[in-house]
Amino acid sequence: MSTRRETIRIACGQGFWGDMLDAPVRQVTEGPIDYLMLDYLAEVTMSIMQKQRARDAGAGYARDFVPLMREILPACVARDIRVTANAGGVNPEGCAEAVRGVARELGLGGRLKIGTVTGDDIMGRLDELLERGVELRNMDTGEPLSKVRERVQSANAYLGAWPLVEALNRGARVVITGRSTDTGLTLAPLIHEFGWGENDWDVLAAGTVAGHIIECGAQCSGGNCQYEWQTIPDLAGVGFPIVEAGPDGSFVVTKHDGTGGRVSVPSVKEQLVYEMGDPVAYITPDCVADFTTIQLADAGRDRVRVSGIKGRPATEFLKVSVSYSAGFKAVGTLVYAWPDAYAKARAADQILRARLERLGLKFDHTLTEFVGVNSTHGHLAGEPDADAPEVQLRIGVRGEDRKAVERFTKEIAPLILTGPPAVTGFAGGRPKVEEIVAYWPALIPKTEIEPRVEVAEV
Amino acid sequence: MGDLFNIFMKVKLLKLAHARSGDKGDTANVGLIALREEFYPVLAREVTAARVKEHYGRLVGGEVERFELPNLGALNFLLHESLGGGGTLSLMTDAQGKTFSTALLRMEVEVPDDEARALGIEIPNG
Q1: Cβ–Cβ under 8 Å, residues A423 and A415
Q2: Local structure of residue A241 (DSSP, 8 states)
Q3: Most Cβ neighbours (<10 Å): which of A255, A271, A307, B115?
Q4: Is B93 in Cβ contact with A270 (below 8 Å)?
Q5: A269 contacts chain B (CB < 8 A)
Q6: B26 and B86 in contact (C-beta within 8 Å)?
């Protein structure tokens, strides 16, 4: 970097894999930004990608990312916008190869570099690690990974911002990672632009908080916002968030002019507390951020200033996300109409359970909910309206025995002609049996993980 | 009203706070945020971990932990063992705990009448 900029604009274009497809396009085209960050990886996404790669060695990444790059790459090159994305899943090289192909087709050969960050995937090293006494104990239950070793489908360490920083320093226009933290995708550009150091804990924490605020997309700019939700304008055209950050770590959360939604102190507060644990210790690979030091101020329409953030040294560990096969489940639903809708739904549940019992089917867990009565707030919702127009019966089972779960799925439709009257809502056919891929959080010493960074010209 | 012995007023948290909830495994988190800065001391005093545990009753199998964020006028609660195993293991409609937020807003707290008046808290009907 020859001259450092005073303000860097980082835009979030994707809060999860499956988020609004046009959001990143609008971030690039509807106003000024310097970076576009895209978060594609939920905890269970890696196992899905691992399966895709097992079938096809070229697959295993967020495929949506490639057509998106086809659409926005010319504008990114023309307007000097860089992209950070954890779209690589379990195959960042394959993803990068596909993007290089697109870039060449667009006539951008020789005009940009693509960086990849790998080294997060420890699936192939699991046995060696376990043998050496790295137990990868479950952070919630304390059990060692050996308990489910045979059923493991993917295992990835969460990498932080620094490998992305290296890729940016080496001139990458697009940085594609595997399992990296959501916050690192925002923090890395700030470190790169402002030259922050590895022990500059306060600014690293500030960049981490900036990442946390925008990583869920429009959830900080008016989406899913409880505060005066009826007054939030034009959610149909909701603007995704942008941080405008300075070298001292303070930043403004905003969105492009003319877009829908609202960025306000309450909307940012709601996102800050989302998925929060101990607010004094928000732990990432890069630092420990203290959320009790965050100061928010209204800075005009759709602008919230964030400052005062303190950080502490990072820990010696990285989080590992392991996915493992944990049996099967299925959920069936039927809708009962007035009169006595709830009573009918309850009777149907009893009949179904009696039949499952007669069939000798055993499950680890069976759950009945009545949608319209208790499926969100349980008993807190109070006694149901006796005159309710309709109630949906929703019953789910879970167990190790696939055959038992499959048999269950065949017992729902018969209730229509053999149970209580005025029932509908079965047009979707039999419920699907789903294989459960469960999540096993663990820690690994940082010294065990060696991130690798490649930067190649298209 | 006008009853000499009625020195407290019952107020639903919906009138005092907004909230957002999420999940970490089988634990739901609920961030409870004061609608106005002046309401935070009432939340900090009345909405204790024990009272929250009692409020959710059988919806929360494990312990409730509370953390304070006075800088945001917010409290954060961790509701352990509340998501039917959590993540993909859960059979619940709300396996991610997204609606635990408004379930907490159903809770009632007692606010002394004079404090309620000073804070401009609306007196509920009835």
Answers
A1: yes
A2: P
A3: A255
A4: no
A5: yes
A6: yes
Instruction: Kindly report the backbone phi and psi dihedral angles of residue A2, in degrees, each rounded to the nearest multiple of 5, phi listed first.
Output: -80, -60
Q: Say if residue A235's pLDDT is above 50.
A: yes
Q: List the one residue out of A7, A6, A74, A11 whose CA is nearest residue A256.
A: A11
What tokens were used for B89?
């293991």
The helix (H) or strand (E) run that includes residue B79 is: strand B74-79
B91 vs A397: CB contact, 8 Å cut-off?
yes
- CA angle at residue A35 from A34 to A38, to 5 degrees? 160
Structure tokens of A323? 């996915």
Inter-chain touch B93–A371, beta carbons under 8 Å: yes
pLDDT tens, residue by residue, A309-334: 999 999 999 999 999 999 999 999 99
Name the architecture of domain A323-440. 2-Layer Sandwich (3.30)
**Helices (H) and strands (E) in chain A — how many of each?**
12, 19
- Nearest Cα residue in chain A from B71: A292
Q: What is the pLDDT of residues B4-41, one digit of tens each?
A: 556 899 999 999 999 999 999 999 999 999 999 999 99
pLDDT of amino acid B4:
57
Spatial distance between the Cα atoms of A407 and A356, rounded to a whole number of angstroms:
9
Tell me the CB-side half-sphere exposure of residue A63, using CA atoms within 13 A: 8
Tell if the CB–CB gap between B94 and A397 is shorter than 8 Å.
Answer: no
Chain B residue numbers with beta carbons less than 8 Å from the beta carbon of A326 are 88-89
**Which of residues 40 through 59 in chain A touch B, CB cutoff 8 A?**
43-44
| Cβ contacts of B71 on chain A, cutoff 8 Å | 292-295
Reported as a single tens digit per residue, the pLDDT across A34-44 is: 999 999 987 77
A364-394 pLDDT per residue, tens: 999 999 999 999 999 999 998 889 999 999 9
What sign results for the dihedral spanned by CA atoms A417, A419, A422, A423? negative
Question: Prior bond to A339 cis, omega within 30?
Answer: yes
Structural domain boundaries in chain A: 8-120+158-315, 323-440
CB A330 within 8 Å of CB A317: no
* Residues of chain A positioned with their CB less than 8 A from the CB of B102: 226, 377
**A43 vs chain B: nearest CA distance in angstroms?**
9
Q: Check: pTM over 0.90? Answer yes or no.
A: yes
Q: Write out pLDDT tens, residues A147-199.
A: 999 999 999 999 999 999 999 999 999 999 999 999 999 999 999 999 999 99
Find the angle CA(A293)-CA(A294)-CA(A300) to the nearest 5 degrees: 150
Hey, is the C-beta of A426 within 8 angstroms of any chain B C-beta? no
